[in-house]
Write a structure and sequence with these properties.
The protein is α/β, with parallel strands linked by helices. It is built from four helices and three strands. The chain has one domain (4-83): 3-Layer(aba) Sandwich (Trna Endonuclease, Chain: A, domain 1), CATH 3.40.1350.10. The chain has a three-stranded parallel sheet. The mean pLDDT is 92.
């Protein structure tokens, strides 16, 4: 059985390594996986240190959040879709890189 510990920061400024280290307390409460979500992203030190924790803690910034919402939106229940109404649109592009 997996237990998750999730910490979320809504600040526009990047989260530093201190916050990442605080999430390591998850092991004391029996969590096996940690997720640190920060809309403002992470400092270089936090990203570097998180590489040593790859199998226990993941970092998500705003790009990861949006990617996961788009990837899984069709699986959302109707109540959640009503809270976050999205509509797919198509547009032409001049050139594909």
């Amino acid at each position: 059985m997996f237990r998750y510990n999730i910490q979320s920061k809504s600040s526009a400024s990047p989260v530093d390594v201190r916050i990442l280290r605080e999430l390591q307390v998850m092991q004391k409460v029996g969590a096996t996986q940690g997720l640190l979500v920060a809309w403002g992203g992470f400092t270089k030190d936090a990203i570097q240190e998180s590489k040593n924790m790859f199998f226990s803690i993941r970092l998500w910034d705003q790009g990861n959040i949006i990617d996961e919402i788009i990837k899984n939106y069709q699986k959302f229940n109707d109540e959640l879709k009503a809270e976050l109404p999205l509509k797919q649109i198509w547009t032409l592009v001049d050139e594909i890189n």
